[in-house]
Automatic annotation (TrEMBL):
InterPro entries: LysR-type_TF_proteobact-type, LysR_HTH_N, LysR_subst-bd, WH-like_DNA-bd_sf, WH_DNA-bd_sf
Annotated signal peptide: none
Role: NodD regulates the expression of the nodABCFE genes which encode other nodulation proteins. NodD is also a negative regulator of its own expression. Binds flavonoids as inducers.
The protein's name: Transcriptional regulator, LysR family
Top-level taxon of the source organism: Bacteria
Family to which the UniProt record says this protein belongs: Belongs to the LysR transcriptional regulatory family.
Length: 287
């Protein structure tokens, strides 16, 4: 039984279709279909029911998928065990934030690939919340305050930030001095997040309101420069704006708790050496 056929079947099962699995694997749809046909012919059972919307597991497919995934994972561990120390091969798929990824994370990923010439590294940059299990990523880099989840997370570095607004906004609307006053201002947000501030040892949480939202920190920084409101943004995004005077810090008597950069991976799996070494490299750069 061919290992590539098994891996392909697991990808199709998890992705819900041949096209999605082909994108994940970086191969053509015809190759995926050929591997599936060969596996089903060897087993003598139908594993997938093809539909106009993708592919659904048959009863046999549901049972076989669990065993196939376990076999692929065990072989990955076995290959890592027998490889020379430090040598990596195979594929590493990483989901990374767009606001931070191309400027800060991409050089680290490139260094990872340079150190391990047999490793195929695929990085996907997006500020949307990526389902790393459903979309087949080995791990994701997340920035901020992690919500409770069943994912396994490792902090690799701190992320500091502050509240900022443009001088024009402050001239027109004034600057808030307390968290309560902030509620009367237009907040620039990614969604319906909670903002936290420190008053001595006490943490104050507020739910700001605003009419401008974007799923990208760079876009929120641009909106703040345009005078649309007050934004909480990480320092790496606003450093140049602060130096030029396009943005100024507000409500500085209340510290913003330090956020973090995390590597998160799916639960129920041993951390692969690829993910462990990437985590160590990120700590080396950001920790």
């Amino acid at each position: 039984m061919d290992l590539d056929d098994l891996r392909t079947f697991v990808e199709v099962a998890d992705a819900g279709g041949v096209s999605s699995a082909a994108r994940r694997l970086g191969v053509s749809k015809s190759i995926v279909s050929r591997r599936l046909f060969r596996l089903e012919a060897e087993l003598g059972v139908q594993l997938l029911a093809r539909t106009t919307r993708g592919a659904a597991l048959t009863e046999a497919g549901v049972t076989f998928r669990e065993h196939a995934a376990r076999v692929c994972a065990e072989i990955d561990v076995a290959l890592e065990t027998i490889l020379p120390a430090g040598e990596l091969r195979g594929r590493l798929r990483i989901a990374a934030p767009l606001s931070l990824g191309p400027t800060h994370l991409a050089p680290v990923f490139a260094e990872m690939a340079r150190r391990h010439p047999l490793l195929h590294l695929q990085a996907s940059y997006s500020d949307r919340f990526v389902d790393i299990v459903g979309e087949g990523f080995d791990c994701a880099i997340r920035v901020g305050y992690l919500n409770d989840s069943n994912l396994i997370a490792r902090r690799v570095g701190p992320v500091t930030g502050k509240l900022v607004a443009s001088p024009d906004y402050i001239r027109e609307h004034g600057a808030p001095a307390t968290p309560d006053e902030l509620l009367a201002h237009q907040a620039l947000m990614q969604g319906t997040e909670t903002w936290q501030f420190m008053d001595g040892d006490k943490t104050i949480s507020i739910h700001p309101q605003g009419r401008f939202k974007a799923d990208n920190g760079t876009a929120l920084a641009a909106a703040a420069v345009a005078g649309l409101g007050i934004a909480w943004l990480p320092d790496h995004l606003i450093r140049d704006y602060l130096e030029s005077g396009a943005l100024v810090a507000v409500m500085t008597s209340y510290l913003v708790p330090t956020a973090g950069m995390f590597v998160v991976r799916p639960p129920g799996q041993h951390s692969t050496r690829k993910v462990r070494l990437l985590t160590e490299l990120l700590i080396e750069h950001f920790g």
